[in-house]
Structure formats: C-alpha cells, structure tokens
Specification:
339 residues, 73% helix, mainly alpha
C-alpha cells in the first residue's frame, strides 16, 4: 500500500460531493437552460455517489483485503450503515405516507429495501452494503485480476441498462433480460451493477503501488470529464437513456479525480465526514421545508420556481440542519466520555 501523509482533500471533497447530490434533486440550472442543467447536474453531478463508494473501498475494503482489520472493521461498517439506513427510513416514512408513496405489496417493500431505497435518495445505502458483501465474497474465491474483470462486466451490464437502454432494448433478447432485472430493481444503479466497480477501484488505488503525478491526474480528469459530458449529452440528445446514473467514461473520471485528490496536501475540515453524511440524508426533508416556508412567506416564485435560488436555499438549510445534528452528537459524545 502506498503511504499518504494526509487525506484532507479526500475528506473535504465529501462536502462537494454531498452538494452535487443535492443538485441532482433540485436541478439548479433548470430555470436558465434544461440542457445546461442536464450537463451540470446529470453529468458532473454523477461524480458524487461513485466518489463515496471509492472512499469506502479505499478506507474500509482495502484494509479488509490486506487482513489488517480482519472482519471487525468491515462488520462495524456494515452494521453502522444498516442502522443509518433504518433510521433514515423511519425519518422518511411520514413523507412517504403524505405523498401516498407507500408500496401496497410485500414484494414492493422488499424491492425498495434492497435495491430502490426506501426513499428516492436512500438507494445508495443498500447499494454500498450489497456491493461490499459481493466483493467480500469475490475476495474469498477470485484473484484481484478476476475481480477487476467481474466488476467491470457488471458495470457494463449496468451502463447498457441505464444510459443506453433505449438503444439496446431494440434487441429482443436484451430487452427480455433487462425486463427481468427491472422486475427486481427499478434501475441498474444499485449494489450489483454500479457499486462494485467503484468500491473495487478504491481498493486497487489503496493497495497498489500505482501513483501518478498531480499534473497527469489533472489532465486525465479534465479530458475524461469532457468526454463523459459529451457521452452524457449524446445519450440525452438521442434519447437512449432510461436513467442517467452510469456512463462508460465515469470510470476514468473517478480514477483521475481520486488520484488528483490523493496528491493534494491540505488541512482537513474536522466535521466534513459527518456533515456530508447528514446533508445527504436530510436534504430531501429540507426540500420540503424550503417549499413549505416559501409557500407560507409567499416567496415560491423566488425560492422554488427560481431553480438556482432553490438549490442555494436547500443547500443552506441542509447544511445548517446537518451542522446542528453534528454539534448535538458531539455534545452527547463528550458528555458520555466524562461519565
């Protein structure tokens, strides 16, 4: 494993990634241009989730592969994520009831719990759990090279069912296969097809001796990001997309971005990890708060219909509410340490 002196840029980028996820659900440029909003939100914004997956691979799965932490650290991560998922589900049940979005069948609930997420943004939590469990299984029986091949093939299946589905569904056999997949999971952006490759990339970057300079990482990131933007625009323009979470060039984008962040030394924002997590969990709740407050203040044209101001308002409210949660958590932890 290559040694790093600090991970400040990685930890601080968590906040940027969380705000990119907020942008996906608020469409900040929609008032100005739907095309610009798509490129910024559904191309650049797609960096957020793979980044968090790579962080998990780098800091959780990589030590597991090396046998440093045994099963303890991995088990703790999986339990913590499952508990967080359960708490987040409870938080959003009232909103599901209010929006009449409760599945009437057990099968629907199981589909949401394991793949789609119990609220529209929570799919990431079961995805990271399933992705980790899949890789743990593969590590028992497969070589690193084989795992690389398997995770790439799974991602390939996912991309074709995501940004290219309306293109490949013209082939009857493929359409039948994907209809079977969508019967179990509404999208291929899940813990089987999307998560494993980015989790594994984090492991590879942590445990390999590969290292590239900041200049090459920057150039690689900018070139691959431009290519991914073109790929996203093409699949959007030609209406190939069933969804827009997965692109072929997202893999090199994330590789070079992570390498770039690893090459940057700096000072970590101490609460960045917790703050980014709570922003991710709470921002849909804050969307509802902003809409409600805007309606009460008769400011909907400004704070809701003006998409960029809506995004800023949701981001600020999400950050403030998340900061309050972090401070309360720190207060109780500090009190418990004195008991």
């Amino acid at each position: 494993m290559r040694q790093r002196k600090n991970y400040a840029a990685i930890d601080n980028f968590r906040l940027a990634a969380a705000l990119l996820i907020v942008a996906i659900h608020t469409s900040p440029l929609k008032s100005f241009s739907e095309t610009a909003d798509f490129l910024v939100t559904y191309c650049f914004g797609r960096i957020g989730v793979p980044f968090f997956l790579m962080v998990t691979g780098y800091f959780v799965l990589a030590p597991y592969q090396r046998g440093i932490s045994g099963n303890g650290s991995m088990g703790k991560f999986l339990r913590k994520t499952a508990v967080l998922y359960g708490i987040a589900t409870l938080i959003y049940i009232p909103l599901k009831i209010y929006s009449q979005n409760i599945s009437p069948t057990l099968g629907g609930w199981l589909k949401e719990i394991f793949f789609d997420g119990t609220f529209y943004h929570l799919w990431y939590l079961p995805a990271v759990i399933l992705g980790c469990l899949l890789l743990i299984g593969l590590l028992q029986f497969c070589s690193p090279l084989a795992i690389s091949g398997i995770t790439f093939v799974l991602y390939l299946v996912g991309v074709l069912g995501d940004s290219y589905y309306n293109l490949i569904c013209e082939v009857p056999v493929l359409k039948t296969v994907y209809e079977g997949i969508f019967h179990v999971s509404s999208y291929t952006r899940n813990g089987i097809f999307l998560a494993p490759v980015f989790l594994w990339m984090g492991v590879v970057l942590a445990n390999s001796k590969l290292k590239i300079s900041r200049d090459y990482a920057t150039a690689g990131f900018l070139i691959s990001l431009a290519g991914m933007t073109a790929e996203g625009f093409a699949s959007f323009y030609f209406q190939w997309q069933k969804h827009n979470s997965m692109y072929f060039l997202l893999i090199p984008v994330m590789f070079f971005l992570f390498e770039l962040l690893l090459s940057i030394q700096g000072t970590e924002i101490g609460i960045a990890r917790d703050l980014s997590m709570y922003i991710y969990i709470l921002h849909p709740f804050c969307i509802v708060l902003v809409r409600g407050a805007a309606g009460a203040l008769k400011a909907s044209k400004l704070l809701v219909e003006q998409s960029f101001l809506h995004y800023l308002a949701v981001s600020v409210v999400s950050a403030l509410l998340s900061l309050a949660v972090v401070l309360v958590k720190q207060y109780f932890l500090s009190r418990r340490s004195y008991v």
